[in-house]
Amino acid sequence: MITTIQYNSRKLQIDLLKPLDISIPMRASTSNVNAWYLDAPKIEPVKNGDWIATVKDGACINFNTIEFNPHAHGTHTECVGHITENVYSINQNLKQFFFLAEVITVAPEKLGEDFVISKKQLQFALGNKKRDAVVIRTMPNTTEKLSRQYSHTNPTYLLEAAALYLKQKDIKHLLIDLPSVDKEKDECRLLSHNAFWNTKGKLRLDATITELIYVPNHVEDGEYFLNLQIAPFENDASPSKPILYKVIN
């Protein structure tokens, strides 16, 4: 179903019947993707004495309690409240949900003992394109990302200059297939988070960072219409479900 959408000064054609889900599902399993030194998420039926809230155990309903951390256990979208003393909620600050996005693929560069994404790489990939969002797929790109255990592995991260470049380019929404835009153990400096959200100046309250996405290899680099879906959590971050639609025209 080809639909024409008026977006700013452009008319975009997208096929609403061909959504590309780039979120990672959350499972109550030790094979669930994980970071930040936490145990696996839990999805367990409510128990009240001998009564267990599952149909298979004789109840009339399935009634589960879920225990998880949005930053550690799957695709999540966060706002500046993630790193500020003042409380800012993703639900209060993300008020629009459709954006023009560019999917780019980056092979991280070696820097000492680390692998990083540099400003130069982003400049090469984005050029003069004007986008609201950028979706970064890192290489190698395997399905292992759906179950990777990131704790104590020093994953790839963005250099501060790269995050600053995205801010200067007015990218409002940064999506990446890593547990963080910052180095895992960086003495809590959070250089890229701070640069992207401009914490030394006027806070970018409407800017978001989405981490732990997975962009399958069949999704080509290029221009997409992004639907950034969140759960209405009054929290700095929420589980999220970013959906891409290829721009046809």
TrEMBL record:
A Pfam family per the record: Cyclase
One record GO biological process: L-tryptophan catabolic process to kynurenine
GO MF term (any one): arylformamidase activity
Position of the signal peptide: none
Name of the protein in question: Kynurenine formamidase
Organism lineage string: Bacteria, Pseudomonadati, Bacteroidota, Flavobacteriia, Flavobacteriales
